[in-house]
Specification:
The protein has about 280 residues and is α/β, with parallel strands linked by helices. It has a single domain, classed as Divalent-metal-dependent TIM barrel enzymes (TIM Barrel, Alpha-Beta Barrel), CATH 3.20.20.150. Helices cover about 40% and strands about 20% of the residues. The protein has helices at about 20-25, 45-55, 75-90, 120-135, 155-165, 175-185, 190-195, 225-240, 255-275; strands spanning about 10-15, 30-35, 60-65, 90-100, 100-105, 105-110, 140, 170-175, 200-205, 210-215, 215-220, 245. It has an 8-stranded parallel barrel with strand order 1-2-3-4-7-8-9-12, surrounded by 4 helices. A two-stranded antiparallel sheet has the order 5-6. A two-stranded antiparallel sheet has the order 10-11. Strand 5 (about 100-105) and strand 6 form a beta hairpin. Helix 4 (about 120-135) runs parallel beside helix 5 (about 155-165) and helix 7 packs parallel to helix 8 (about 225-240). It is globular, with a radius of gyration of 19 Å.
């Protein structure tokens, strides 16, 4: 039986290559899964049946790849309506997308940075409102990693805040992306994280990355979570509260038991933060 309860705890990004292990296990220490809807929408037959079996047993969120919210191309309204049907069919609790774009007269096959300008913020916010009206649910936007900032007229932080405010939407706070950008663009990761609006944060992403050079990190989702990202996640819990946290692992995927150990660490940090924030009883 499916429910509409919110997500909690520590979740795992589900890749199709993980299916055999996931279907064969009890998955008791995976609180929820997240998938890219584009990776499942086209399929029927056995794969669709397997996915349906999982969504009937477990809580799911969706993290999209191709909405292209910042694109100069018109919104694909037909695709958004497909998503709405998919979300209802599988009781998808949350839907997030990237604050970026991946199409301009055709697919670009990468997440491109939106210019940090007032004009772009208003343009994106209007498109977000359209998507939310069709879906009849909030759209959650992720702060993305980027390697260049073409046409920049405002800071990344101000741009994110402006889009969230104008669109009245939520934030998927990707802790690894903050850390990667802080190294690549030379800003204070802690100050950036603390300045984000707590009331907009819906859930968190954590992942690993690749160090190309001392001043160049690449957001690969292909490694274990490093200590600086763990420390930043702890700060996020302190600053914005304990919320569902998703571990992304898209490449160099180890055994499910190894992935579950990362989830155990997330839950331990969540419990630590909740304990620290609980009111202390005063002995009389």
């Amino acid at each position: 039986m499916t429910t509409s309860l919110p997500l909690t705890g520590a979740g795992l990004g589900l890749r199709r290559e993980m299916l055999p292990e996931v279907l064969a296990g009890d998955n008791q220490n995976i609180d929820f899964f997240e998938v890219a809807p584009e990776n499942w929408l086209p399929y029927g037959g056995k794969l669709a049946s397997q996915f349906q079996a999982l969504t009937e047993r477990h809580a799911f969120a969706c993290h999209g790849l191709s909405l292209s919210i910042g694109s100069p191309d018109p919104l694909d309204i037909g695709f958004v309506k497909q998503l709405k049907t998919f979300f209802k069919q599988h009781n998808i609790r949350l839907y997030s997308e990237h604050l970026s774009y991946c199409s301009a007269g055709g697919h670009l096959y990468d997440l491109m940075p939106i210019p940090f300008t007032e004009e772009a913020a208003s343009y994106v916010a209007a498109r977000v409102r359209t998507v939310q009206d069709i879906l009849e649910q909030p759209l959650i936007l992720e702060n993305v990693s980027y390697y260049a900032a073409p046409g920049q007229q405002m800071s990344e932080l101000d741009f994110i805040r402006e889009v969230l405010n104008q669109a009245d939407c939520q934030l998927l706070l990707d802790v690894n992306n903050i850390y990667v950008n802080s190294v690549n663009h030379g800003y204070d990761a802690k100050a950036f994280l603390q300045a984000l609006p707590s009331e907009r944060v819906a859930y968190y992403h954590v992942a690993g990355h690749y160090q190309e050079a001392a001043d160049l990190l690449v957001d690969t989702h292909g490694a274990d979570i490093p200590d600086p990202v763990w420390h930043l996640l702890q700060l996020a819990y302190q600053q914005h509260g304990v919320k569902p946290t998703l571990y992304e692992r898209d490449f160099n995927i180890p055994a499910l038991s190894s992935l579950k150990r990362e989830l155990d660490t997330i839950r331990a940090l969540q419990q630590q933060a909740l304990k620290a924030s609980a009111p202390q009883k005063v002995a009389l």
